[in-house]
Amino acid sequence: MSYLVLARKTRPQDFNQVVGQVPVVKTLQNSLVRDRIAHAILFSGVRGVGKTTLARIMAKAINCEQRAADGNPCNKCRSCTEIKADSSLDLYEIDGASNRGIQEIRELKEKIRFLPTSSKYKIIIIDEVHMLTNDAFNALLKTLEEPPSHVLFMFATTELHKIPITILSRCQRYELKRVSAEDLTTHFGKLAKEEGVLIADAALSLIVRESEGSVRDGLSLLDQVFSYGEKEISVNDVVQVLGLVSRDIILNITRALLENNPGSALKALDETFNFGVDLKRFTADLLNAFRTLILCRIEGCQELIDIPKEELDEFKKLAEKYGHNTIHMKMNLLMQGVEEMRYSPQPRLAIESTFLKIIQTDEVVPIAEILARLDTLLAGQPLPQTTPQQEPVAKKKIPEKIVLQTVPPVPEPKTTPPPPSEQPPVPEKAQTQIHPVSPATPKPVQHPHKRDVRRDWQGFIEHVKDRNLWMAQNLQRTETIREADGELQLHFAEQANCTLLCQKDNVKLLTEFVLDFFQKDLKLRFITPDKVEGKELDNVNSPHKLRNKLANDPLVLMATEIFNGQIGDIRVGPRSR
Ligand SMILES: [Zn+2]
Questions:
Q1: Together in a domain, 405 and 544
Q2: Measured in angstroms, how far is the CA atom of residue 363 from the centroid of ligand 1?
Q3: pTM over 0.90
Q4: 212, 310: one domain
Q5: CA dist., res. 575 & res. 99, Å (int)
Q6: CA 82 – ligand 1 centroid, Å
Q7: For residue 84, what are the domain limits?
Q8: 45 CA → ligand 1 middle, Å
Q9: Domain boundary residue, one of 315, 340, 360
Q10: Residue 171: what pLDDT?
Q11: What's the pLDDT score for residue 343?
Q12: Cβ within 8 Å of residue 55, ≥6 positions away
């Protein structure tokens, strides 16, 4: 009852009173002026934007006995007054939702067989026409194909895509847009004035925003606010009557999430809860705020933002301070959080934890930038030379005895690098052929004397590191190294640690590295405890093992190292989700 009051009272009676929809109104008026009215007209658009209102004005104008020069109905003649009073015998208004069967369409066809009683045309308006059954559409189609000259159809629908193409092709179509915030503000402001209610600008813009471009929805909200009984309406009144979250709170939370201020975000959230707002509504508002921020940062997209100007200015200020990627990342986390919240038995906790997660994400570096850095690294960017501190450690690992047994006492290649002029050029050339190294960063070539696989293992890893970073990182995981029977035996604690190395191409490359560095043609052999007896252990697929394996997967380790991240959670299970 309350909302019908305004909607009824203020229903536009001619084209001039229609809110928004200027191009459609103009075209309709022109068709009347030029007397080129289509036999079937289809209005589409979301609810409450004026589809049936325009159909009724059109019906009035078509049958008006004293139509104005601009196409407007006079609203005074017999036909106009009858239509206004819902008593015209030549206007059939049908609700497609409740008269959707073939029987109803047959009855309708029966009625329109006869000439109009007192008007030029019989006019049929079918609202929610997409609800008709297929049979009903087919029956209707026959009439549309050969329409009696005294009959005009007008259809309205919120779901254009549900209407058969055969029907669509026989209609003149008008798509009604959501009414802009500006138009609604003007319209509602005028109504408030007429009702003798003083409404604050911010309160009005809140109602406009809640209407989401629908005049009817807005009027229903206005009715609620007017019936609140106050002669002066403030933002808080609207917030309270409509059970909304105030824009300030949304803006404050958005700001806190961007500034990484957990205290402020949680406090504002608490305020919202104390207010008893609808969580779904609240999170939708928050997501919308992030959407606004993103649109603020995209050139030429600001007209997609339909919020009051002062609010837009606040968002623009905020958007300028943060990168697009950062805003986007935080918005994605928020979306995930909202999704989780929906299924959480403790929604408040879920949303709080989402806030904290969002706050923990720092400025986002674009992936392209990271990849560029990675490329530089993999292209053989010089890495720090072995530091003096590293050397004693490497020495300590190897028992003195073995060193003496296997290596002639020549100068250490690393601790006393030769002056550049004495570098022998030959092996460097060979290396370059196998794995190109950036010419800008030539690596000083090591002594070509016989190296020992165990003593010089760290040196070898350094050698590989300059040519293939991940391979070097994988080699770091060897437990023990042995040279025996023309083989280089690499022991790993787990199969997962050498999965990638074991691949054919990688073995080939590694063999070449070994040949370069140790000057020995050694066959590589990877030894892991899983394969002690030449077969995998039974429990290799147990969840614990699997998790361990995944955690130590070279790719995962490489990714965590590159992104400086850590493994948060590993889920092992069937891929049912
Ligand atoms: Zn008239």
A1: yes
A2: 65
A3: no
A4: no
A5: 47
A6: 9
A7: 21-175
A8: 27
A9: 360
A10: 95
A11: 86
A12: 41, 43, 125, 154, 156
